[in-house]
Amino acid sequence: MEAREANLVGKSNLHHLELSWGLDSEFEPRENVEKIFEALKPHPNIESLMIEGYKGVKFPVWMNNQILSNVVSITLSQCENCLQLPPSWQLPYLRHLTISELIHLEYIDTSFQGDKMMSKFPSLEELYIYQLPRLQRLSRQDGMESFPCLTKLQICQCPELTLPCLPLAKTLVIYGCGEKLLRSILNFRSLTHLYVDSIHDSIYLPHGIVQTLTSLHEMRIIKFRKFKGFPTELVSLSTLKSLHIDLCPDFEAFPEQVLEGLTSLQLLDVRECRKFSTLSEGLQHLSALKCLVLNGCPELVALPDGIRYLSSLRELIISGKPTASYGQRKTTICREMIVSLFSDKESDCCPKLAVLPETLWRVPALQSLSIRCYPELASLPHWLGDLTSLQSLQIFDCPKLSTLPPSIQSLSNLQNLQISQCPELVKQCHKETGEDGYKIVHVPNIDVEA
Question: What pTM was estimated for this model as a whole?
Fold first, then answer.
């Protein structure tokens, strides 16, 4: 047998092993496939193992013993006929485990409490599970002795899964699962980063979930089709530093009481929420806020007066439509590309802002201002010159703008000026022929293009 002739067990210098079965193996008798896999037994020095497309029903016997005792990373993918995993919970040095597309799998750990083992997955730090439609729980019997070192958990399309208490979990990523899974993370008190993507049936986050996440630093809410807002208990997140809401078409506003307790928040980022129209006066409570991004919010026409109290605010981005730079850097949690919730008609709705919000002139500490995609914005206000701390000014895709206010000459700290897709304004700012050229001669770096 060619597999046995490979003599993997005799290759002591083999530390990384990848075994992949092609489409033609589907027509091979399962018994043959399993015998071949059994013959591919590696040397105990193996540290990393990846298995993809295996068509057998059970994994080889050698995965049940000490052959894998030095393994630190295992990836099992598209082993669609396997009903359960080998006892990887026994491996003393396993730190990274990835399992995807095992469509019959119900548990990661099938052991029972009676098994003589002090802890299950004693060294596992990162667990990635994708497209496991029947997965019920991580362990057949949950207990505090399971996953004692797990700090990062990424879950994609596991609709039946609920989670046990994971006391050391720091990062949790959820994509395309159900609200049942969200409700099971109530006791993740060490969690610092929470990313939730494509939970289509939830209107609000489950009651009580926020109050228990007392160590949270970053939260991302992405592609909730019906999401309307946060519970008032969000005020308890006094440690939260970064909050992102992306692609939530029904999200309209932040109630004032929701923002009151976010005293550590440094970044607030709202993107592609087509009904979002107001931040409310609760904005004034965000005393630590450094960056505010309102990108692709066509209904937004004003900013609350409370913005004057944001003494730490240094960067503001307002855009009537999603900008290209955002689309270029968007990543997905699963391997599939995330398709925008908006139809072409919805994404092309015209931004309503026609006048730059006057409340901005009361933010003298602002250092970077970006104004993008406002087809009805016809002029820039004189008070722009009062933003004396401004170092960077970007103006993109505002075709009705035709001139800069004379007061821009007062911006002595302005180092960078970028103007793009504003045809008339670009003409006026041409270095040699534009009538506004004299207004910006003091700016060291100017990038003007039609």
Answer: 0.88
